[in-house]
């Protein structure tokens, strides 16, 4: 979805939502067939074909707005992301358990705004999901027009920790962009890296 | 021999998984307000459920159940953040929060600006009094 279409869609008050074509729904169809097979615990061809028929009927009857994929997917980056994610899920649980038992009612938190680089709905949603499951934060409010997430962050004591939380969200977004972002988003990342390395050069 | 080892692994997973769910419950009681309690509701039990499902997969010793276990966990990953967001958003809007536990609130300014705009455009609204402020 282009930025214009996204804005139009976000502001749309005519009641006519933008709808997906069958080709755009292929990933959804694939997923539904897998779910069907998993539920029956039976991955034979006949069962899967029947599942596909049901999936087709479902997407015809319950039309959904399209999910626009970037057309890029890096498997190695997905592995990097996946392993970092599993490690973070474990760390998040340990952290919350520790806080619940030893800190309890004295826990301080903050609500911070993080403005993301990406304009894609899918990526923003993905970032929101991942940061809820890894240590620290969850999404309280989203501003779709400016891709800004308002997060509730647990266990922050001062401004430096707020900045640290912000940086960790940007890091999650970076990992996701490297995995499945569009080429434009990759270019933004590259520019950022260049700018920051120049700054370091000046300082040293 | 292998059976015993697998049983021990599965048993350990189940105990840790249950303890994590218990910890989530403790967090619900111990944290100061709704917004921080939601952390306890989403995080530890995601790992807890993963460990319980892994134990189940090991105990059943059948590959056919693996896709459905993976799916169960995947759906948990998809739905837990959404429910935390919905409850948190509603809680924030109805002011079910303790301001003194927040060290910064960057959303408050945005909400105040939106309220001021609303007032300018549609006149003063009757202030709700049925909320805990």
Written overview of the protein:
The complex is a heterodimer of chains A (204) and B (133). Chain A is mainly alpha-helical and 204 residues long. Chain A has 2 domains: 3-61, no CATH class; 75-203, no CATH class. Chain A contains 7 helices and 3 strands; from the N terminus they run H-H-H-H-E-H-E-E-H-H. Chain B is elongated, with a radius of gyration of 22 Å. Chain B has 133 residues and is mainly alpha-helical. Chain B has helices spanning 2-30, 34-60, 66-93, 106-122, and one strand spanning 102-105. Chains A and B meet through helix 2, helix 4, strand 1, helix 5 and strand 2 of A and helix 1, helix 2, helix 3, strand 1 and helix 4 of B. Chain B: The chain crosses the membrane at residues 6-29, 41-58, 64-88. Chain B: It comes from Paeniglutamicibacter gangotriensis Lz1y.
List keywords for this structure.
A: 204 residues; mainly alpha; B: 133 residues; transmembrane (chain A); Cation_antiport_E (chain A); membrane (chain A); Monovalent cation/H+ antiporter subunit E (chain A)
């Amino acid at each position: 979805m282009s930025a214009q279409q996204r804005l139009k869609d976000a502001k749309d008050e005519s009641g006519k939502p933008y709808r997906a074509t069958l080709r755009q729904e292929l990933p959804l169809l694939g997923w539904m067939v897998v779910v069907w097979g998993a539920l029956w615990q039976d991955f034979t061809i006949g069962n899967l074909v029947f599942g596909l028929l049901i999936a087709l009927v479902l997407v015809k009857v319950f039309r959904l707005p399209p999910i626009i994929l970037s057309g890029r997917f890096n498997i190695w980056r997905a592995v990097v992301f996946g392993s970092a994610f599993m490690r973070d899920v474990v760390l998040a649980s340990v952290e919350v358990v520790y806080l619940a038992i030893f800190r309890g009612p004295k826990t301080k938190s903050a609500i911070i705004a993080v403005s993301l680089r990406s304009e894609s709905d899918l990526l923003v949603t993905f970032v929101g999901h991942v940061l809820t499951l890894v240590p620290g934060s969850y999404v309280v409010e989203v501003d779709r027009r400016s891709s800004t997430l308002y997060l509730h962050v647990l266990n922050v004591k001062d401004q430096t920790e707020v900045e640290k939380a912000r940086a960790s969200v940007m890091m999650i977004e970076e990992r996701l962009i490297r995995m499945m972002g569009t080429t434009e988003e990759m270019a933004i990342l590259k520019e950022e890296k260049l700018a920051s390395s120049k700054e370091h050069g000046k300082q040293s | 021999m292998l059976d015993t080892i697998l049983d021990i692994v599965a048993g350990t997973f189940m105990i840790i998984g249950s303890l994590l769910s218990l910890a989530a419950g403790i967090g619900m009681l111990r944290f100061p307000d709704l917004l921080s309690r939601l952390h306890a509701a989403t995080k530890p039990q995601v790992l807890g459920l993963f460990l319980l499902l892994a134990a189940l997969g090991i105990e059943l010793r059948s590959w056919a159940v693996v896709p459905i276990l993976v799916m169960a966990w995947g759906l948990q990953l998809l739905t837990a953040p959404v429910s935390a967001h919905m409850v948190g958003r509603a809680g924030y809007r109805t002011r079910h929060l303790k301001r003194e536990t927040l060290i910064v609130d960057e959303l408050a300014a945005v909400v105040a600006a939106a309220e001021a705009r609303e007032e300018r455009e549609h006149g003063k609204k009757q202030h709700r009094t049925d909320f805990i402020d």
